[in-house]
Amino acid sequence: MNFDFKQKPIGIRTVSMAILLGTFVGYIMVSAFGYHPNEIFGTLIKGAFGSPKAIASSLRWSAPLMFTGVAAAIAFKGGMFNFGLDGQIYIGGLAGTITGLIFINLPGILLIPLMMTVSMIFGAAWALLPAYIKVKLGGSEIVPALMMNYIAVHLTDFLVHYYFLASGTNGDSLKTERIAPQAQFGNLIQGYPITAAIFIGLTVVLIFWFLMKKSKLGYQILMTGENDAFARYGGIRTDYIRTSVMLISGAIAGLGGIVEIMAVRWRFESGFAPSYGNDGILAALLGSSTPVGTLLGALFMGSLKSGSLAVERYTDVSRAFASVIQGIIICFISARLISKYLGWKSLQTWLSSRKKEVLHD
Protein backbone atom coordinates (compact mmCIF):
# COMPACT_ATOMS: atom_id res chain seq x y z
CA MET A 1 0.00 0.00 0.00
CA ASN A 2 1.26 3.46 -0.88
CA PHE A 3 0.04 7.00 -0.45
CA ASP A 4 1.42 10.49 -0.87
CA PHE A 5 1.71 12.47 2.34
CA LYS A 6 0.43 16.01 2.04
CA GLN A 7 0.26 18.10 5.17
CA LYS A 8 -2.62 20.54 5.23
CA PRO A 9 -1.82 24.03 6.53
CA ILE A 10 -2.62 24.52 10.21
CA GLY A 11 -3.68 28.00 11.26
CA ILE A 12 -2.52 29.76 14.40
CA ARG A 13 -6.10 29.71 15.67
CA THR A 14 -6.27 25.92 15.36
CA VAL A 15 -2.95 25.49 17.16
CA SER A 16 -3.91 27.98 19.90
CA MET A 17 -7.28 26.32 20.42
CA ALA A 18 -5.66 22.88 20.52
CA ILE A 19 -3.17 24.02 23.17
CA LEU A 20 -5.95 25.59 25.24
CA LEU A 21 -8.15 22.51 24.97
CA GLY A 22 -5.21 20.21 25.71
CA THR A 23 -4.41 22.25 28.80
CA PHE A 24 -8.06 22.21 29.85
CA VAL A 25 -8.31 18.42 29.51
CA GLY A 26 -5.03 18.05 31.40
CA TYR A 27 -6.42 20.32 34.12
CA ILE A 28 -9.43 18.04 34.50
CA MET A 29 -7.27 14.90 34.53
CA VAL A 30 -5.01 16.28 37.26
CA SER A 31 -8.06 17.16 39.35
CA ALA A 32 -9.58 13.72 38.78
CA PHE A 33 -6.46 12.03 40.20
CA GLY A 34 -6.61 14.10 43.36
CA TYR A 35 -3.86 16.64 42.66
CA HIS A 36 -4.09 20.41 42.82
CA PRO A 37 -4.12 21.56 39.17
CA ASN A 38 -3.18 25.15 39.99
CA GLU A 39 -0.06 23.92 41.75
CA ILE A 40 0.86 21.49 38.97
CA PHE A 41 0.38 23.93 36.10
CA GLY A 42 1.99 26.72 38.10
CA THR A 43 5.05 24.54 38.58
CA LEU A 44 5.00 23.62 34.90
CA ILE A 45 5.02 27.26 33.80
CA LYS A 46 7.56 28.27 36.42
CA GLY A 47 9.84 25.41 35.39
CA ALA A 48 9.71 26.62 31.78
CA PHE A 49 9.79 30.41 32.15
CA GLY A 50 9.98 31.29 35.85
CA SER A 51 13.65 32.25 36.00
CA PRO A 52 16.70 32.76 33.78
CA LYS A 53 17.79 29.19 34.54
CA ALA A 54 14.34 27.89 33.65
CA ILE A 55 14.44 29.73 30.32
CA ALA A 56 17.94 28.38 29.70
CA SER A 57 16.64 24.88 30.43
CA SER A 58 13.80 25.37 27.95
CA LEU A 59 16.30 26.46 25.30
CA ARG A 60 18.49 23.46 26.10
CA TRP A 61 15.61 21.06 25.43
CA SER A 62 14.47 23.03 22.39
CA ALA A 63 17.85 22.82 20.65
CA PRO A 64 17.73 19.14 19.57
CA LEU A 65 14.11 19.60 18.46
CA MET A 66 15.20 22.32 16.04
CA PHE A 67 17.18 19.67 14.17
CA THR A 68 14.51 16.98 14.23
CA GLY A 69 11.75 19.52 13.60
CA VAL A 70 13.45 20.83 10.47
CA ALA A 71 14.27 17.26 9.41
CA ALA A 72 10.60 16.30 9.68
CA ALA A 73 9.38 19.54 8.07
CA ILE A 74 11.52 19.28 4.95
CA ALA A 75 10.35 15.70 4.41
CA PHE A 76 6.73 16.81 4.84
CA LYS A 77 7.22 19.61 2.32
CA GLY A 78 8.41 17.08 -0.25
CA GLY A 79 5.46 14.76 0.32
CA MET A 80 7.41 12.26 2.43
CA PHE A 81 6.90 11.14 6.02
CA ASN A 82 10.24 10.47 7.69
CA PHE A 83 9.26 8.41 10.70
CA GLY A 84 12.85 7.21 11.05
CA LEU A 85 14.33 10.30 12.71
CA ASP A 86 15.20 8.52 15.95
CA GLY A 87 17.19 5.86 14.12
CA GLN A 88 19.01 8.48 12.08
CA ILE A 89 19.89 10.37 15.27
CA TYR A 90 21.41 7.26 16.85
CA ILE A 91 23.31 6.11 13.76
CA GLY A 92 24.61 9.62 13.05
CA GLY A 93 25.46 10.19 16.70
CA LEU A 94 27.48 6.99 17.02
CA ALA A 95 29.28 7.54 13.69
CA GLY A 96 30.26 11.04 14.74
CA THR A 97 31.36 9.85 18.17
CA ILE A 98 33.57 7.13 16.70
CA THR A 99 35.13 9.77 14.45
CA GLY A 100 35.84 11.89 17.51
CA LEU A 101 37.48 8.92 19.22
CA ILE A 102 39.63 7.98 16.23
CA PHE A 103 40.90 11.45 15.33
CA ILE A 104 41.43 12.53 18.90
CA ASN A 105 44.55 14.59 18.11
CA LEU A 106 42.96 16.57 15.27
CA PRO A 107 42.49 20.31 16.00
CA GLY A 108 38.96 21.27 16.97
CA ILE A 109 38.53 23.52 13.94
CA LEU A 110 38.92 20.42 11.76
CA LEU A 111 37.56 17.74 14.07
CA ILE A 112 34.17 19.34 14.75
CA PRO A 113 33.24 19.77 11.04
CA LEU A 114 34.54 16.27 10.34
CA MET A 115 32.38 14.73 13.05
CA MET A 116 29.35 16.66 11.84
CA THR A 117 29.95 15.65 8.23
CA VAL A 118 30.29 11.96 9.10
CA SER A 119 27.14 12.11 11.21
CA MET A 120 25.20 13.69 8.37
CA ILE A 121 26.44 11.08 5.88
CA PHE A 122 25.42 8.18 8.11
CA GLY A 123 22.09 9.81 8.99
CA ALA A 124 21.33 10.25 5.29
CA ALA A 125 22.41 6.69 4.54
CA TRP A 126 19.97 5.38 7.17
CA ALA A 127 17.15 7.25 5.39
CA LEU A 128 18.04 5.81 1.98
CA LEU A 129 16.19 2.48 2.26
CA PRO A 130 12.75 3.98 3.11
CA ALA A 131 13.24 6.48 0.28
CA TYR A 132 14.12 3.67 -2.15
CA ILE A 133 11.07 1.64 -1.09
CA LYS A 134 8.85 4.65 -1.68
CA VAL A 135 10.33 5.93 -4.94
CA LYS A 136 11.47 2.77 -6.72
CA LEU A 137 9.23 0.04 -5.32
CA GLY A 138 6.05 2.03 -4.87
CA GLY A 139 5.66 1.10 -1.21
CA SER A 140 5.13 3.23 1.86
CA GLU A 141 8.20 4.83 3.45
CA ILE A 142 6.55 5.10 6.86
CA VAL A 143 6.69 1.50 8.10
CA PRO A 144 10.28 0.71 7.03
CA ALA A 145 11.46 4.04 8.45
CA LEU A 146 9.73 3.27 11.74
CA MET A 147 11.14 -0.26 11.91
CA MET A 148 14.64 1.03 11.21
CA ASN A 149 14.43 3.06 14.42
CA TYR A 150 14.44 -0.18 16.41
CA ILE A 151 17.27 -1.59 14.32
CA ALA A 152 19.35 1.54 14.88
CA VAL A 153 18.80 1.63 18.64
CA HIS A 154 19.75 -2.03 19.14
CA LEU A 155 22.54 -1.97 16.57
CA THR A 156 24.24 0.98 18.24
CA ASP A 157 23.88 -0.72 21.63
CA PHE A 158 25.48 -3.85 20.17
CA LEU A 159 28.39 -1.94 18.63
CA VAL A 160 29.05 0.02 21.79
CA HIS A 161 28.84 -3.07 24.00
CA TYR A 162 31.24 -5.19 21.95
CA TYR A 163 33.56 -2.69 20.28
CA PHE A 164 33.47 0.78 21.84
CA LEU A 165 32.55 0.29 25.50
CA ALA A 166 34.32 2.67 27.86
CA SER A 167 36.93 1.09 30.06
CA GLY A 168 35.74 0.22 33.55
CA THR A 169 32.11 0.19 32.44
CA ASN A 170 29.86 -2.75 33.19
CA GLY A 171 27.49 -4.23 30.64
CA ASP A 172 24.41 -2.48 32.00
CA SER A 173 25.81 0.97 31.26
CA LEU A 174 26.42 1.24 27.52
CA LYS A 175 28.58 4.23 26.75
CA THR A 176 31.74 5.04 24.87
CA GLU A 177 34.80 6.94 26.01
CA ARG A 178 34.52 10.71 25.90
CA ILE A 179 35.19 12.43 22.60
CA ALA A 180 38.23 14.65 22.23
CA PRO A 181 38.10 17.71 24.54
CA GLN A 182 38.43 20.10 21.60
CA ALA A 183 35.10 18.78 20.27
CA GLN A 184 33.22 19.25 23.54
CA PHE A 185 30.90 22.25 23.80
CA GLY A 186 30.96 24.02 27.15
CA ASN A 187 28.28 26.25 28.66
CA LEU A 188 28.34 29.72 27.14
CA ILE A 189 27.23 31.20 30.48
CA GLN A 190 28.50 29.79 33.74
CA GLY A 191 25.76 27.82 35.50
CA TYR A 192 23.34 27.93 32.57
CA PRO A 193 22.85 24.95 30.22
CA ILE A 194 23.19 27.01 27.04
CA THR A 195 25.77 25.80 24.54
CA ALA A 196 26.64 26.38 20.90
CA ALA A 197 23.98 23.77 20.06
CA ILE A 198 21.24 26.41 20.20
CA PHE A 199 23.03 28.56 17.62
CA ILE A 200 23.74 25.61 15.34
CA GLY A 201 20.05 24.71 15.57
CA LEU A 202 19.02 28.26 14.69
CA THR A 203 21.42 28.17 11.75
CA VAL A 204 19.74 24.99 10.50
CA VAL A 205 16.34 26.71 10.74
CA LEU A 206 17.72 29.72 8.84
CA ILE A 207 19.13 27.48 6.10
CA PHE A 208 15.77 25.73 5.90
CA TRP A 209 14.07 29.11 5.43
CA PHE A 210 16.51 30.12 2.70
CA LEU A 211 16.12 26.77 0.96
CA MET A 212 12.33 26.92 0.87
CA LYS A 213 11.93 30.64 0.16
CA LYS A 214 14.88 31.59 -2.01
CA SER A 215 16.10 28.55 -3.93
CA LYS A 216 15.02 26.62 -7.01
CA LEU A 217 15.32 23.35 -5.10
CA GLY A 218 12.91 24.66 -2.47
CA TYR A 219 10.37 25.48 -5.18
CA GLN A 220 10.74 22.00 -6.64
CA ILE A 221 10.26 20.45 -3.19
CA LEU A 222 7.08 22.47 -2.64
CA MET A 223 5.67 21.57 -6.06
CA THR A 224 6.45 17.89 -5.58
CA GLY A 225 4.79 17.85 -2.19
CA GLU A 226 1.74 19.79 -3.37
CA ASN A 227 1.01 17.88 -6.58
CA ASP A 228 3.31 15.15 -7.80
CA ALA A 229 1.63 14.78 -11.20
CA PHE A 230 1.63 18.52 -11.90
CA ALA A 231 5.28 18.82 -10.84
CA ARG A 232 6.20 15.96 -13.16
CA TYR A 233 4.31 17.61 -15.99
CA GLY A 234 6.29 20.80 -15.33
CA GLY A 235 9.56 18.98 -15.80
CA ILE A 236 10.48 18.38 -12.16
CA ARG A 237 12.17 15.05 -11.43
CA THR A 238 9.86 14.14 -8.60
CA ASP A 239 11.55 10.83 -7.78
CA TYR A 240 14.87 12.64 -7.42
CA ILE A 241 13.27 15.34 -5.25
CA ARG A 242 11.56 12.85 -2.93
CA THR A 243 14.74 10.86 -2.51
CA SER A 244 16.64 14.09 -1.89
CA VAL A 245 14.30 15.35 0.84
CA MET A 246 14.56 12.03 2.67
CA LEU A 247 18.35 12.10 2.49
CA ILE A 248 18.48 15.75 3.59
CA SER A 249 16.07 14.95 6.40
CA GLY A 250 18.22 12.02 7.56
CA ALA A 251 21.37 14.14 7.34
CA ILE A 252 19.86 16.87 9.55
CA ALA A 253 18.70 14.27 12.08
CA GLY A 254 22.18 12.73 12.14
CA LEU A 255 23.65 16.20 12.67
CA GLY A 256 21.27 16.71 15.58
CA GLY A 257 22.53 13.48 17.14
CA ILE A 258 26.19 14.46 17.17
CA VAL A 259 25.46 18.05 18.26
CA GLU A 260 23.55 16.68 21.26
CA ILE A 261 26.55 14.52 22.12
CA MET A 262 29.07 17.34 21.70
CA ALA A 263 26.92 19.77 23.67
CA VAL A 264 25.62 17.64 26.55
CA ARG A 265 26.87 14.07 26.75
CA TRP A 266 30.44 14.27 25.38
CA ARG A 267 30.09 10.54 24.63
CA PHE A 268 27.60 8.20 23.01
CA GLU A 269 25.25 6.68 25.59
CA SER A 270 22.46 4.19 25.13
CA GLY A 271 19.16 6.07 25.05
CA PHE A 272 20.84 9.49 24.81
CA ALA A 273 18.06 10.96 22.63
CA PRO A 274 14.72 9.97 24.18
CA SER A 275 11.81 10.71 21.81
CA TYR A 276 13.66 13.54 20.03
CA GLY A 277 12.45 12.22 16.69
CA ASN A 278 8.78 12.04 17.60
CA ASP A 279 8.91 15.39 19.38
CA GLY A 280 10.50 16.91 16.29
CA ILE A 281 7.66 15.56 14.17
CA LEU A 282 5.17 17.14 16.57
CA ALA A 283 7.06 20.45 16.41
CA ALA A 284 6.85 20.38 12.60
CA LEU A 285 3.15 19.54 12.71
CA LEU A 286 2.47 22.36 15.17
CA GLY A 287 4.28 24.78 12.88
CA SER A 288 2.72 23.58 9.59
CA SER A 289 6.27 22.63 8.54
CA THR A 290 7.18 26.27 7.92
CA PRO A 291 10.60 27.49 9.15
CA VAL A 292 9.23 29.98 11.68
CA GLY A 293 6.39 27.69 12.72
CA THR A 294 8.73 24.74 13.24
CA LEU A 295 11.04 26.91 15.34
CA LEU A 296 8.11 28.01 17.51
CA GLY A 297 6.94 24.40 17.74
CA ALA A 298 10.40 23.32 18.90
CA LEU A 299 10.47 26.09 21.51
CA PHE A 300 7.03 25.08 22.74
CA MET A 301 7.93 21.41 22.99
CA GLY A 302 11.26 22.23 24.69
CA SER A 303 9.52 24.48 27.20
CA LEU A 304 6.98 21.76 27.93
CA LYS A 305 9.84 19.33 28.53
CA SER A 306 11.61 21.73 30.88
CA GLY A 307 8.41 22.42 32.77
CA SER A 308 7.56 18.73 33.07
CA LEU A 309 10.96 18.04 34.63
CA ALA A 310 10.22 20.73 37.21
CA VAL A 311 6.82 19.16 37.89
CA GLU A 312 8.46 15.79 38.51
CA ARG A 313 11.13 17.38 40.68
CA TYR A 314 8.88 19.47 42.93
CA THR A 315 5.57 17.54 42.96
CA ASP A 316 4.35 13.96 43.03
CA VAL A 317 3.30 14.00 39.35
CA SER A 318 5.45 12.20 36.78
CA ARG A 319 6.96 13.99 33.79
CA ALA A 320 4.83 11.62 31.68
CA PHE A 321 2.00 14.07 32.39
CA ALA A 322 3.58 16.43 29.83
CA SER A 323 3.51 13.63 27.26
CA VAL A 324 -0.20 13.22 27.91
CA ILE A 325 -0.76 16.92 27.23
CA GLN A 326 1.32 16.68 24.04
CA GLY A 327 -0.76 13.76 22.81
CA ILE A 328 -4.03 15.52 23.56
CA ILE A 329 -2.89 18.67 21.73
CA ILE A 330 -1.87 16.69 18.65
CA CYS A 331 -5.18 14.79 18.70
CA PHE A 332 -7.09 18.06 18.68
CA ILE A 333 -4.94 19.45 15.87
CA SER A 334 -5.29 16.27 13.84
CA ALA A 335 -9.05 16.18 14.29
CA ARG A 336 -9.39 19.71 12.88
CA LEU A 337 -13.01 19.66 13.95
CA ILE A 338 -12.14 22.22 16.60
CA SER A 339 -11.70 24.77 13.85
CA LYS A 340 -15.31 24.20 12.80
CA TYR A 341 -17.10 23.52 16.05
CA LEU A 342 -14.96 25.05 18.76
CA GLY A 343 -12.92 27.59 16.84
CA TRP A 344 -13.28 31.28 16.25
CA LYS A 345 -15.59 30.85 13.26
CA SER A 346 -18.23 29.13 15.36
CA LEU A 347 -17.92 31.90 17.95
CA GLN A 348 -18.39 34.53 15.25
CA THR A 349 -21.37 32.63 13.83
CA TRP A 350 -22.98 32.41 17.27
CA LEU A 351 -22.44 36.12 17.96
CA SER A 352 -23.86 36.99 14.54
CA SER A 353 -26.98 34.89 15.13
CA ARG A 354 -27.47 36.46 18.55
CA LYS A 355 -27.19 39.91 17.02
CA LYS A 356 -29.83 39.08 14.42
CA GLU A 357 -32.15 37.75 17.13
CA VAL A 358 -31.78 40.94 19.16
CA LEU A 359 -32.44 43.12 16.12
CA HIS A 360 -35.45 41.00 15.17
CA ASP A 361 -36.93 41.31 18.64
Order of helices and strands: HHHHHHHHHHHHHHHH
Helix content: over 70%
Can you count the beta strands?
0
What is Rg? 22 Å
Mean pLDDT, to the nearest integer, reads: 87
- What structural class is derived from the secondary structure elements? mainly alpha
Distance between the termini: 58 Å
In this structure, how is the largest beta sheet organized?
none
- Tell the overall outline: globular
The residue ranges in which pLDDT falls below 50 over 5 or more consecutive positions are: 337-344
Number of helices: 16
User: What amount of the residues lies in strands?
Assistant: under 5%
Structure description:
- With 361 residues, the protein is mainly α.
- 73% of the residues lie in helices and 0% in strands.
- The protein has 16 helices and no strands.
- The chain has helices at residues 12-32, 37-49, 52-77, 85-102, 108-126, 128-135, 142-164, 197-214, 216-226, 228-233, 238-265, 276-286, 291-314, 320-335, 337-342, 344-360.
- Helix 3 (52-77) packs parallel to helix 8 (197-214) and helix 3 (52-77) runs antiparallel to helix 11 (238-265).
- The protein is globular.
- The N and C termini lie far apart (58 Å).
- Mean pLDDT is 87; it is low at 337-344.
